[in-house]
Amino acid sequence: MPRPDSLSLREARRVAIAAQGFASSAATTDADTTADTVEARHARRLIGRLGLVQIDSVNVLVRSHYLPLFSRLGPYEAALLDRLAYGGKRRALFEYWGHEASLIPVEQQPLFRWRMARAERGEGTYGELARFAVERRPYIESVLAEVASRGPMGASELSEAGRGAGGWWGWSDGKRALEFLFWAGLVTTAGRRGFERLYDLPERVLPAAVLDTPTPEEAEAQRALLRIAAHAHGVATERDLRDYHRLDVTDARLRIAELVEAGDLLPVTVEGWDRIAYVTPDLRIPRKAASRALLSPFDSLIWERQRTERLFGARIRLEIYTPAHKREHGYYVLPFLMDERIAARVDLKSDRKAATLLVQAAHSEPHAQAAAVAPALAAELRRLAGWLGLERVTVVGAGDLAPALAGMLGDAQGY
Fold this sequence. Notes:
Pfam families: AlkZ-like. The chain is an alpha+beta fold and 415 residues long. The protein has 3 domains: 6-107 and 215-279, no CATH class; 125-206, Orthogonal Bundle (Arc Repressor Mutant, subunit A); 317-409, no CATH class. The chain contains 15 helices and 14 strands. Strands 10-11-12-13-14 form a 5-stranded mixed beta sheet. A 4-stranded mixed beta sheet has the order 1-8-9-7. A 3-stranded antiparallel beta sheet has the order 2-4-3. Helix 5 packs across helix 8 (173-183). Mean pLDDT is 91; it is low at 25-31.
């Protein structure tokens, strides 16, 4: 079948949804899926397809990095992801700066060594961290020596942790030193205690086969990352592609031009988009995308907000840091993907003491019909509650969908 030179917006949405592992996942339509059904191989295959999963510390519902697997595979044992990320030298994932802090397949570690080398030179990191590295180099070297001697360890366990500062999230000097070493690839995450990162030397954490893999040239590694981004997106503009692994504009433009010249990326136009997009030569356009999924606000399908607006017509913003009286949809809002559109948004909270999933707000999108959305969303909320070990779903907030959801769920406290 000849490759199209243009895509309709509906085709682009289907391509994007399928590329992100939704449309092809049997679990997204299988109500009988249980945590025992999803195995490590399913999770590894999915994360390999996505390329990475963003980590976030907010725990009002569940930490964000656990949600993408649930959204695509259905209920699974959350400890499975922990084992893949922190399960000794046979681990399948490692932590590094991909799209922000991320869990990344270990075999991709060589593709980030150029970023580690730049960081060690003070390039590509936060400006204050780079200055700290220059000004406190002997101290940083002493921290590295202590990790080598005593690791794995948290920042608070350093013999000279130093005092916290006003900025930098209250980071101590020890935490700054460890984060610089983490950027530079001189230490990595051995595990977590609660959410506290435990640092150790890469040779004591990562598989030997990974560490022994030759380091690719910088340009080669960047092209590889862009290929991963292109397959994970399905269809993407230059901005979308470089944002996936947070590549610099100059680097990304050079590498994309090289991939186009090599035939690894093919330009297309997309209905309504004001810039050229790119697809891979193996592009397949699904005939439908029958998905039902609650999306973490940090899900890779929607984390580039301009792309989300172009694809779905939904302007999504993280409102955690917005004053309560100015929030439009709520504090921790999950968009609800229904078929090929974002159909609703729900502000959710886990009340663990009461074993209840709280729906603090529920809004439908302008194009959606509440009568059609409410039953599908209610079913997905029940499934989410079950996965989280919560006994009920209670609607306690406002929004045009709240009355219908309350009726469906039958456990409302008012709306």
